[in-house]
């Protein structure tokens, strides 16, 4: 049984007085430990697809299941626990540091402060942001901000991480290391579903998919070539 399954999913959006089909008969399966990346142009619906897959939005038709459970019925319990939707936009409270930000989800679940702090430090180290623990939001680079956001998601121990455009806005020199980190997290058993607007974002994906005209298709066509591939051994070195 797949960890995540989208079965014949449809989703519409208002476009002035008319309804526009964003997703049409979308079918997708994500296995545990798999990295799945969806490429699409701007307004292709890739962000909507990820929100529906994470249970944040409901499909207009079709079914989304996580570990066999219908997200329409169980989504509220699964989101933030077994499903981690990574919000890239960091909003630190005044005077708070990255460590405090990574602890928030644990504290909201009544985890003791000392335990939450320890687990948050471990998560920051895992994503290569241990050195950012005491930094304020304004002191983080774009790549460091993504790593801190991933730590905040990872600290809750999700089985699936959903992240929209993880390298968007990240300096070119740092993008490969972010992609390598996602690959490493998947290799450790956490499924990752991501979107991208760049062909290089498909590097090392177990499934590289294309969303266009509301339809989700398989391997990208020649218009996306060349795709730069990271070797797994180099990905592991870069993921820290």
Q: What is this structure's SSE topology?
A:
Layout: E1 4-15, E2 18-30, E3 35-39, H1 46-54, E4 61-66, E5 69-70, H2 71-78, E6 83-86, H3 98-107, H4 113-126, H5 142-154, E7 160-163, H6 172-187, E8 191-196, E9 207-212, E10 215-217, H7 232-238
Parallel strand pairs: 3-8, 3-9, 6-7, 7-8
Antiparallel strand pairs: 1-2, 1-4, 4-5, 9-10
Helix pairs in contact: 3-4, 3-5, 4-5, 6-7
Give the tally of β-strands.
10
CATH topology tier name of the largest domain:
Rossmann fold
State the helicity in percent bands.
25-40%
CATH domain class name of the largest domain: Alpha Beta
Distance between the termini: 31 Å
Q: What is the assembly state of the chains in this entry?
A: single chain
Which structural traits does this protein have?
240 residues; Rossmann fold; four-stranded antiparallel sheet; 25% strand; globular; alpha/beta; 7 helices; 2 domains
Plain-language structure description:
By secondary structure, this protein is an alpha/beta fold. It has 2 domains: about 1-80 and about 165-240, P-loop containing nucleotide triphosphate hydrolases (Rossmann fold); about 90-155, no CATH class. The protein has 7 helices and 10 strands. It has helices at about 45-55, 70-80, 100-105, 115-125, 140-155, 170-185, 230-240, and strands at about 5-15, 20-30, 35-40, 60-65, 70, 85, 160-165, 190-195, 205-210, 215. It has a 6-stranded mixed beta sheet, sandwiched between helices. Strand 7 (about 160-165), helix 6 (about 170-185) and strand 8 form a beta-alpha-beta unit. The protein starts with a strand and ends with a helix.
């Amino acid at each position: 049984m797949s960890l995540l399954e989208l079965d014949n999913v449809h989703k519409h959006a208002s476009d002035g007085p008319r309804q526009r089909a964003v997703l049409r008969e979308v079918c997708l399966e994500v296995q545990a430990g798999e990295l799945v990346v969806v490429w699409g142009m701007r307004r292709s619906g890739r962000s909507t697809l990820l929100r529906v897959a994470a249970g944040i939005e409901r499909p207009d038709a079709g079914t989304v299941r996580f570990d066999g459970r219908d997200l329409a019925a169980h989504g509220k319990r699964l989101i933030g626990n077994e499903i981690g939707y990574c919000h890239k936009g960091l909003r630190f409270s005044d005077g708070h540091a990255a460590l405090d930000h990574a602890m928030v989800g644990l504290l909201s679940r009544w985890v003791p402060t000392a335990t939450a702090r320890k687990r948050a430090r471990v998560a920051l180290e895992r994503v290569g942001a241990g050195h950012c623990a005491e930094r304020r939001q304004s002191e983080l680079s774009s790549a460091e901000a993504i790593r801190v956001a991933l730590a905040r998601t990872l600290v809750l121990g999700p089985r699936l991480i959903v992240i929209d455009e993880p390298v968007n806005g990240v300096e070119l020199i740092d993008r490969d290391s972010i992609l390598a980190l996602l690959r490493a997290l998947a290799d450790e058993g956490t499924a990752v579903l991501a979107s991208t607007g760049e062909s290089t974002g498909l590097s090392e994906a177990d499934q590289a998919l294309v969303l266009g005209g509301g339809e989700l298709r398989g391997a990208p066509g020649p218009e996306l070539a060349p795709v730069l591939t990271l070797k797994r051994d180099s990905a592991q070195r870069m993921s820290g």
